[in-house]
Specification:
Elements: H1 3-12, H2 41-54, E1 58-61, H3 71-82, E2 86-90, E3 111-116, E4 146-149, E5 153-156, E6 162-165, H4 168-184, H5 194-204, H6 214-217, H7 224-232
Domain Peptidase S8/S53: 2-220
GO biological process, one term: proteolysis
Family: Belongs to the peptidase S8 family.
Length: 239
């Protein structure tokens, strides 16, 4: 069972033995890596174009890298969110040093997700802000945006049961699945846009009291109930 299948299961598995967040959601799976972990920008661009064409609502990217000079990739990420696609991405597993964020999670229009342990402490592997090396001129940007469980998270296994994996690649689909659940309860589809959802996640997050800096936890730990309530009473405002 591959990395992508596990991630998809976290979001939308309908198997009662290891159910996902949003089992009624439709999944579009894009294979952009070979078995040897080789990929090309053109493969991502093709996948992103298809996502735009199909009008998907939420796109999870459990990938990342320091390729800040890959202008076509970065521009296409902007195009995704400009088309109303809510983009959620893992910030990377290069912690605990600061300034280790990955792209595209470090971009402003992307919801960058870090990982915490079961005791709500920042996972050692989770990358930290600031945006000091991925984005030219990006020094000082607060990332991650939020954090959630990324250590020993249970998801689909080949034998039909569950298995545990760790990493921000796991934390990111936890948020993606939660966002899918949130949107299912919001009738006004004008609110189904990247800016509103990001603001709801940030405003609803719970600050972790024993974490020293915002470059480790961002706005804090995802709180799906508080974020959903924020969306239900949402009115546009400057933050």
């Amino acid at each position: 069972l591959g990395h992508g299948t596990f991630v998809a299961g976290l979001i939308a598995s309908s198997d009662h033995r290891c159910v996902g967040f949003a089992p009624a959601a439709s999944i579009y799976a894009y294979k952009v890596f070979t078995k040897k972990q080789v990929s090309f920008t053109s493969w991502f661009l093709d996948a992103f174009n298809h996502a735009i064409l199909r009008g998907i609502n939420v796109l999870n990217l459990s990938i990342g890298g320091p390729d800040f000079t890959d202008v076509p990739f970065m521009d296409k990420v902007w195009e995704l969110t400009a088309n109303g696609i809510i983009l959620i991405s893992a910030i990377g597993n290069d912690g605990p040093k600061f300034g280790t964020l990955n792209n595209p999670a470090d971009q402003m229009d992307v919801i960058g997700v870090g990982g915490i342990n079961v005791d709500s402490k920042i996972a050692r592997f989770s990358s930290r802000g600031m945006t000091t090396w991925e984005l030219p001129g990006g020094y000082g940007r607060v990332k991650p945006d939020i954090v959630t469980y990324g250590s020993s998270v249970y998801g689909s296994a080949l034998d039909g049961n569950c298995r545990a994996l760790s990493g921000t690649s796991v934390a990111s689909p936890v948020v993606a699945g939660a966002v899918a659940v949130m949107l299912s309860g919001i009738e006004d589809k004008r609110l189904w846009n990247p800016a509103v959802v990001k603001q709801a996640l940030v405003e609803g997050a719970t600050r972790l009291p024993n974490v020293a800096t915002m470059f480790e936890q961002g706005a804090g730990k995802m709180n799906i109930v508080a974020s959903f309530q924020f969306m239900r009473r949402y009115s546009p405002r400057i933050t």
